[in-house]
Amino acid sequence: MGKDVIIACDFESAEKTFEFLDRFTDEKPFVKIGMELFYAAGPSIVREIKKRGHKIFLDLKLHDIPNTVKKSMAVLSKLDVDMTNLHAAGTIDMMKAALEGLTREDGTRPILIAVTQLTSTSEERMQNELLINASINDTIVKYAENTKAAGLDGVVCSPLEAGMVKTACGKEFITVTPGVRFADGDVGDQVRITTPQKAKEIGSDYIVVGRPITQAADPVAAYRRCVNEFVD
After folding, report:
1. pTM attached to this predicted model
2. Residue 61 annotated as catalytic
3. Quick check: 19 pLDDT over 70?
């Protein structure tokens, strides 16, 4: 499986999204459509971006009772995205139901991954606010093991945990890692971060990069820098 850079298109409207994507004349980057854009522009923007030739990671992080998630995933599978996700905290039963709903009649489906812990969550917050007494690393590995047991393809985790997830779940188990910043960039609101080069060394399969590309003076150059550091 080849590595890839996914651009987080966290824009507030379809207009701003297409304005950004129009900058890419030579490449068709893999893009992430998250809650803000999906709620603003709806399924139509997924179809339009797909029509333009981009791979899509639909990042809606479903978390509900198994039956609701199953039915929701059946709807999302019709959008022909390449990857989608849910929260591993929803339990193995919920993840199995999601997989069932996402799988089309012909047996095909997008890559399905689960969020372990958000990259904005520190161990202190997890323990004090969520009352999870295990360490954040142990929690993430356990959530990853649950995800594999449910039959999913991999997890979203910070790049700092990608290596331990691979050790626990095998090298074929996919790690999709946000929280990537250039060494000379701003860290923003994420606390568990690293660089594209380091993410490559640790074992990330995909890195999700938002503001370091979307807010760069030259987004195309920033994207190429990411690809150069992570893929090449």
Report:
1. 0.93
2. yes
3. yes
